[in-house]
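Notes from hallway chat w/ T.B., transcribed later so I don't forget. T.B. wanted the structure written out for a chain they're using in a teaching module, and asked if we could keep both sequence and structure tokens in one place. Agreed to drop them here.
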Amino acid sequence: MRDKPTYQGLPRNVQDTENNPSDFSTQRDRESHLKNVLLAIRDVNQLIARETDPEQLIRKICTSLVKTRGYFNAWIALTDEKCEFVESSAASGFNGGFEVLTSALHRGDFPLCMRLSLWADKVAVTRNPPADCPDCPLSSEYEGRSGLTCRLSYKGRLFGILSVSVPEKFAHDSEEQDLFAELAADLGFALSKLKTDVQTHRLHQIVTSIPQPMSLVSDDYRYLAVNDVYAELFGTVADNIVGKTPAHFFGEQVFENEIKPRLDHVLAGSELQYEIQADFPGRGKRWMFMSYYPYRNEQGNIAGVISHGHDISDRKQAEIALKESEIYYRTLFENVNDAVLVHEIGFDGKPGQFIDANRVALDRLGYTHDELLKMTPKAITTEKG
């Protein structure tokens, strides 16, 4: 697929047309037409840079393409991901025909030019629409003109089609088609970016609503979203984290040796859980139970990592206290000079089986530890009695 196209060479190409004779009625007509197309492309690029709503974008683009007289009319149809039906559409320069076509588009009844463009990544030319597509509601509005139609796509994701009408004598001109194809590619790039922005915004809303620390890191290791709980760990606000890398907060060495390998593991398709003690600027040393999950975009490709943390410091402190208590108890238990035995108490309140005994007790009774744990106080009394 194309990368985001540029139009840096187009003015030069238009200038070249002045030096190359053609079969058109006048070179001046062709030059004037291509300059109008370039004006339309310039306006479209400005719209792409500032518009954030896909439906508003395609509506304004259709209007702009016709307003500059680059094209006689223009229409755009955005489809679902499987290209089975049209989700939204826009048009300019038609006299009622597009309203009829809209109903068919939403039923999944696509005209031939649209089907050809969705099937093949090239400009579809309809030389004489009234004769070639007599059943199309738009064909009567193409008298003396040809149709150019091209898919809107980016990196394998189809978004729909762009179709315009041009003077019939320009329809097969290679430069005309190249301009139109790059215009469609640019719009495909813009639609992809808007889709990604909407998806990221939606996920950002989910992330910020979670009461535990949560973040979304891109596949190039930059924070795309974090919630306020996560930001508090670093003593800052979420906006100061988004766009930066974990290395900015944890240091390059910790990132390369500890964080990046875990992120790469998840970016390869696996989930990951682990416990770690980290020193956070906003909270000091905290024990965290971390869960990492792959984040997939609408195409199902892994585009980042979702991290979800639980502060388990209280639990870890309780575990440490319990362990220290056990060590203290065992030290006292083994070093006291008296015999100490521990046994169960049955439901009837009577002594049950031994569960522990210190060295003094074992020496005085003459049993090994394993032997004693199989006995009860009553068994010892009976045997010794």
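Follow-up for T.B.: The CA atoms of residues 245 and 251 lie 10 Å apart. Might be a good example for the class.
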